[in-house]
Amino acid sequence: MRRVHVIVSGQVQGVGYRYTARMIAREARVTGWVRNRPDGTVEAEIEGPGDAVDEMLAWMAEGPPGSRVDAARVTEVEPIGGQGFDVRDTA
């Protein structure tokens, strides 16, 4: 099991990034959450089998149509065994 913390920068707010991320996360069968940050970035934590996390990270580096991802900073964190994937309120 692998868990990562991700900060995505670029044009990633107001383009459906979080809600599309939730859909992709459910398809990839990963757990975690995603939210907007006041600085214009999107923050997420993703947990699941390594290949599923990699699949989600690949999508996050591209984003949905209408977005522009400049960078995705990924940090490994300790797995917590979460359930589901939530869109959270802004940090």
Automatic annotation (TrEMBL):
InterPro entries: Acylphosphatase, Acylphosphatase-like_dom, Acylphosphatase-like_dom_sf, Acylphosphatase_CS
Keyword Glycoprotein: no
PROSITE patterns, per database record: ACYLPHOSPHATASE_2 (PS00151), ACYLPHOSPHATASE_3 (PS51160)
Catalytic activity field: an acyl phosphate + H2O = a carboxylate + phosphate + H(+)
Pfam annotation, one family: Acylphosphatase
Residues at the active site: R18, N36
Any one Gene Ontology molecular-function term assigned to this protein's record: acylphosphatase activity
Ranges of residues in domain Acylphosphatase-like: 3-89
Domain of life: Bacteria
EC number: 3.6.1.7
Keyword annotations from UniProtKB, A to Z: Hydrolase
Entry protein name: acylphosphatase
Native organism: Microbacterium rhizomatis
